[in-house]
Amino acid sequence: PAPGPAPQPGPDGVALRRPGDRRDDAHDPGPDHRVAPAPADPAPAPGPATRNASRPCPRCRADNPQERRLCQRCGAQLGDPAQAPGQNRLSWWRRLFGRDRDRVLEAGSRPRHRTWPRPRLALPLTLLILLAAAYFARSQLSDALTFTQDQTGKPEALRPADARASSEAGGHRAGAAFDGFTNRYWSPADTGPATGQYLEATFEEPVRLRKLLVISGRSANQDEFLTQARPAELTVTLFTADGERSTKAVNLKDQPGQQTFDVRGSDVVRVRLTVDAAYGESAKRRVAVAEVEFFGRR
Which pTM was predicted? Predict the structure, then answer.
């Protein structure tokens, strides 16, 4: 058969073979003579940043990229990677009273901010300390409560259960000074200055005395006031349920009407008023006390 047309060269300058053509080894070197591709560049050796690919959070222990400064899970501040492990660990007292150190938050959430953290051991310990302090200071607390009541509350009238005197003139017994009437009075049996004569009131139960009211003379009326002698100085003696006593000197003005004095005592069961001096004394006059009243609390 007649030879066909010569094959046309391909794009790379090598003639294309037709089916049935013999391979020319000069033009086709074969797979054994092909050039191998150049090897790829070797991977760089891992450095310190590649070996430590993450930064653990000191709070929730979540892994974070090296470039982050805040934890992507809980928002806590990440420590310097150059610091030693455990350098960002919280102090023992913050770990003891920390309320969220073991709770792991979800991604994208932040811990709720509280002005006052919820205590764990602080509240029970505080209550125990307060209870112990209240037990050892119970007497002081009682005195403080009594003082507050006396300062804020109005004192009430304290009526004695019994009255007696060192001596009594006829018709002017000791009870007349505590009956609530100013036209009846107590006088000792003897006339004159009545130094050392006393008037005494007894309470049925202990009281807290705060004030003493005295109306001297035979009456609160001006025209009757000067007809008898009047006490000028009194010694007030307070007797307590424990047998203790305390005294206070009281100076009265020579005028009709009531005169009030601060006389304080606790657990008082008996009060004695002793005459030390008198106004208008004479051999024909007796010292007179029209009324005595007590104020305080039971």
Answer: 0.53
